[in-house]
Amino acid sequence: xxxxxxxxxxxxxxxxxxxxxxxxxxxxxxxxxxxxxxxxxxxxxxxxxxxxxxxxxxxxxxxxxxxxxxxxxxxxxxxxxxxxxxxxxxxxxxxxxxxxxxxxxxxxxxxxxxxxxxxxxxxxxxxxxxxxxxxxxxxxxxxxxxxxxxxxxxxxxxxxxxxxxxxxxxxxxxxxxxxxxxxxxxxxxxxxxxxxxxxxxxxxxxxxxxxxxxxxxxxxxxxxxxxxxxxxxxxxxxxxxxx
Length: 243
Fold this sequence. Notes:
Blueprint: E1 19-23, H1 45-55, E2 60-63, H2 68-75, E3 81-84, E4 89-91, E5 97-100, H3 106-118, E6 122-125, E7 129-133, H4 141-154, E8 158-162, E9 165-169, H5 175-182, E10 192-197, H6 203-211, E11 215-219, E12 229-231, H7 234-241
Parallel strand pairs: 1-2, 1-10, 2-3, 10-11, 11-12
Antiparallel strand pairs: 3-4, 4-5, 6-7, 7-9, 8-9
Helix pairs in contact: 5-6
């Protein structure tokens, strides 16, 4: 894998012909916190992203593992494309549904909740998935991932691992699929897709951007094979986006 720190900084956004932005949220637009609800978000971040989307004639989407309802608690309901739950739920800028998976089976959510309670972990229930956070107990990583993988296999689900989190979602729910779907929309025609993200779940999105003639920008230090450029911090992302 390529170390992100060896990659060059991206070309200034204004120098790219018809850029289309696919932006991860946690670790990319906002710094990661110990609890998903504890993130610090500037009051005007949603407004700034909406303004950037208008300048790009709609070619901007926030692509996140969070549920869209949860994302909107921090950004507000904005006129821009949104893909939540790793692409299981995708909305247009006007709020029309492009994709919406069903909720996880009750048995799965019950077992996730019970496991989290028994091991003093944070269970994050989402409309289209469920996540176990072990940031406060990193020594349980192997046990958490093993439990999640076994549960996913038993119910024909997918287990997605990230930074101190593992999430169960329906098969096909990934950020690459969200990019492919959004690239079919009129706003994204004849553009240069750019996926910006910091975690392993963003690699699919970067790969999809490359397939459509664009590239990925990695944030932070995690190794990646799918990024062509690198930005060190969330602040650097904001600077590059001219937010």
